[in-house]
Structure formats: C-alpha cells, structure tokens
C-alpha cells in the first residue's frame, strides 16, 4: 500500500473495517431477504398497483389525446386563475406554443400528467403528516429525521428497490418521485401551522371552537400561504425527479434528455431541458403569485 | 542547534519521499488514462489493464469513467482518454472508420475473442416450462405469455436503454417482425438499471420476460437466460444498412451478427507508449472467462477492482499468456 501512515501501527492506520466476508454475507442476506419478500408479496403488489397503473394510463391518455388547443386553453386559464397576472399568463402561453413548435408537445404532456399525479399524491399524503407533526412534538421528533433521510439520500438509490419490487414503468416512477417530492410539503405544513399566531388560537379557544374547527377554520387558512409554498416546492421537485425517473422507463421529456446524454445530441438535450424549464417557471410563477395573493388577503384581514 | 535538527529532519524526509520517485525513473512507461466504461465487462477490463500496466510495466494509470458515445467523442476530438479497452464497434462504426482513416484513432486488438453476442432472451425457467417456444417468431405468437408491465392486455418486449444503439436495432427488428400486429408493444426501459431491474423483477417473481440483452454481462452470469434464435440467418449487409439505421423504411428480419469489440487507442498513445500498446495488442479473453468473472462479481457485489484481482488469482493461465516472464513475475508478486 502506498500510504505511509506516519509510522503508526497498522490498526491505527486504516479506518476500522468489518471483514470482507462479513460484509458480503450481510449484503447477501439483506438482498436475499428482500428478494424473497418480493416473491412472496408479488400478487398483493400487483393487485395494489393495478388501479394506480390504470389511473396513470388514463390520465396520460387524457393529456396526450385531448386536442392541443383545449389543453392549451385550460393550462393558460389555470395560470390566469391562479396568478391574475397578464405577464405570467402570456409567458405561459408563449412557453407552451414554443414547446409545441419544437415538436415536444406529446412528451411534455406525458411529463405534465406524471407531475400532476405525483404532486397530488404528495400533497394528499404530505398534508396530514404535516398536520400531525405540527400538533405533536413527539411526532415531529420522529418524522424530521426521516424527512432528512428522504431528502439527502441520492435520488437514484430509491430506484433500486422500487424497480425490484414494482418493475419498470409509471408506477415505480411515481413512487420514487413522490418519496422525493413529499418532504417540503410536510415540512412547510408543519411550519405554517406552528407559526399561526398564538392569539388567534386563544381567540378561537375563547369562542369555544373544537379542535377540528380550530384546525380547519383558523390554523389551515392562516397557514395557507406557507402551504402554497410547500405545494410549489413539491411541484418543482417532482418536475426534476420525473427526469431521473425516466431511467426506469417513465416516458416524456426525461427520456429524450437521457437519449441525448447517451448520444451527445447537444441540441435535443437543450431543447428538452428548456421545455422542462419553461414548464417549471410557469408552475413556479403561477403558484407563487397565488401564494402572494393569499398573503394579501391575510394582511388585509389583519388590519 | 535546533536549526540543525530541523535541517536534518527535512533532509531525511526529503530523501524518504524521493526514494520511490527514483525507483520509477528507470521504467519506460509513462502516464496512461484508460476509460472505465460504465458496463461491467469493460469496467473489469479497465481495472485488469490498470493493474497489469502499473504492476507489470510501471506505468502511472488513471481511470476515467466513460460511456460509449461520450468517450468516443472525447478520444476523437480531444485525444483523451488514451485507451478504450472495450469499445463495441457497431455503436460507432462510421465515425470510427472516419477517425481511423484520418489517423486520430487506432483499433488495436479484439479484446473479446468470441465477440459480443446480442439477441432476444427469455429466462431459462420459462424456456423449460414452454419447450414449444424455440424461436423469436414462435414467442411472438403468444403475446398473452409476456404481459406488458403497463398494459397486461398486450405483450411486452423489453428494449434497450434510451439512446443506445441496440434501441435502434431492437425497434427495427420489432417492425421487421411485425410484432405490433401480433399484439406486442416495445417496453421502454430507460436505462441499463431499468433493463436489468426488469429482468431482476421477473426473476424475483418467476414471471416470463422477453427482451433484448447481450453477453458477456453480469446479468447473464447471474440469471440463467436462454437466447431465442431467429428463424432466419444473419444478413450482415442488411443489418448494417437498415437494421442499425434510425427509422429504416423497410426492415427485414435478420439475426444479430456477432459484434466486434475492440481495444481502441489514440494516435498519440500508439506513438508515444510502445510498452503499453504492446501489452494491449496481445491482451484478449473469451466470453466464458468474462462471464465467470462477472458472475462472481455480481454474486459478491464486488467492485471492478475486486473482480480484476479475483481474475488475477483464478485465471493465471489466461493473463500469464499475455505477458513476458518479467512482467508476469511483477504482477504475481502484487497479487
């Protein structure tokens, strides 16, 4: 070995390390156990994913097969409805027309349908967990480190178990995306509820609100701007993860990017990249503008 | 007095550091960068070359991670890395011929003596359970046996990762076989991990699987797979002119030709480093050897480096034949 070790004895030189054979035995035990588990549960897994699969297929079909002008008007309409800003709406329109002009409409629709489903699922699962962490310090102590792991684990690592359990395609892709995109939703729900004015809660208590009424009529409405930031973050992360998920056979823009990387297709890579950027910026501006409008209501009502 | 102590300490330290440098001066091999391709057989080959060149010839070897197209482009345009130990020629046939003609790159030697084997495979347990299916054409008559993961009503043929040359060949053969009309869809696997994962998933569940794969590979060392033959012979000309061309208008069925797999080096490397090139010219191994190494590697989840050392321990007759007595002794002493 080349390292000089400053003349120290061997056991102080290299970091303590378990033996190669023990390591191999450990890896093999875990992997075999994992495989046996998959084999035993495969029929349940199939039954559980079948409805998700058909839902994803239907939604993708809806996005792809609807005439472009309808999808275009709906998306521009949603952008207007959330942002109420001519600039953002016009920008979204131009971005969508650009996407169509460069022949990326179908792939963008596939990506959009995946992002839509993944965001919905992440919000539906993340919101209650966020509420739970906000109401219980113990839950927060348990869930926060889990979220840390979910956010720092390299996203590719999720793909390994997901592919072995669920195979390849949209369902495993969706699971990986949801795991990756959910943490900000939970964190910001938690934060938003915890930041609600103590006085507002005291007032609600004074008027004899039940816990449920306090949550729905006081805490969640006041936390709404923060929740919207969470949704915004979740959309952004889902959008970036959907590209990584193309490595397990999710179609759309990500697949083109992967193809471009493998072949050094400079132009195709950048066009698809820019399509993703255009979608991301549209989502981001629209949802942020919506969040700001919510905040303005709050400021008005505070006065 | 203290100055003297410091000075002598410095002198001792300097001479200690200089010693290995002197030892290397009398070697005639310099720096070599080798592409460690991101598939298993090429990764192990890169480490085998690194170990032999360092231990046997005293080169300083640096490995750089690579993939077919990026590595080829970089070698062609910028002359780096110096060596691609295992380049599958089919993927870069025309640009490589141009680069060789212009003297930028040199195809040295065939690293895989059997060449690369490509084809459509099914798991061995499936082949045993369905002995009547003996060819790709017969398998295509039973879409119900190979349900596609996203749509069980159709059959699925797992194709190559996005952007790989085999994605094009598989797609063209799929059209040549008229598989869509027979109820099959191509299943996009996205990446090598996706393709391997789909085989692993089928194996874990004992389910059928039909798709493109190639040898020598760890997956074929680990999972017992059977290659289904096509009912026609190889038509190499048609394969090159149509099957490997994107969107070929009128593809006809042909078996896969055996792929040529070469060690490719840059012109500067060939001129400046006769020692390393001499070794690379004689170094070649068979698919059986590589499959055995890769199977061991996958079973033990070993790194490419571990697998290369395992190869040196277990196949002395293979690598011994590549080296002069001197070099062989040096490598032996390093094991």
UniProtKB/TrEMBL annotation, chain A:
UniProt key word Ligase: no
Domain ABC transmembrane type-1 residues, every copy: 108-287
Q: Supply the InterPro entries for this chain.
A: MetI-like, MetI-like_sf
Q: Which GO terms describe its biological process?
A: choline transport; glycine betaine transport
Query: What Gene3D superfamilies does the entry give?
Result: MetI-like
Q: Which GO terms describe its molecular function?
A: amine transmembrane transporter activity; carnitine transmembrane transporter activity
List the SUPFAM superfamilies hit by this protein, alphabetically: MetI-like
The residues forming a coiled coil are none
Keyword Transport listed: yes
Pfam families for the chain: BPD_transp_1
A GO cellular component annotation here is: ATP-binding cassette (ABC) transporter complex
Q: Which residues cross the membrane?
A: 62-81, 88-104, 110-134, 155-182, 234-253, 265-283
Give the keywords, sorted: Cell membrane, Membrane, Plasmid, Transmembrane, Transmembrane helix, Transport
Q: How does it sit in the membrane?
A: Multi-pass membrane protein
UniProt record similarity statement = Belongs to the binding-protein-dependent transport system permease family.
What is this protein's record name?
Answer: ABC transporter, permease protein
In its UniProt entry, the species of origin is given as Ketogulonicigenium vulgare (strain WSH-001)
Show the taxonomic lineage: Bacteria, Pseudomonadati, Pseudomonadota, Alphaproteobacteria, Rhodobacterales
From TrEMBL, chain B:
**Keyword Signal among record annotations:** yes
Instruction: Tell me which domain of life the UniProt entry assigns to the organism this sequence originates from.
Output: Bacteria
Entry keyword set: Plasmid, Signal
A GO molecular-function annotation: transmembrane transporter activity
Q: Name one GO cellular component term.
A: ATP-binding cassette (ABC) transporter complex
* Cleavable signal peptide: 1-23
Gene3D superfamilies (alphabetical): Dipeptide-binding Protein, Domain 3, Glycine betaine-binding periplasmic protein, domain 2
Write down what this protein is called. Answer: Hypothetical amino acid ABC-transporter permease protein
Q: Which organism is it from?
A: Ketogulonicigenium vulgare (strain WSH-001)
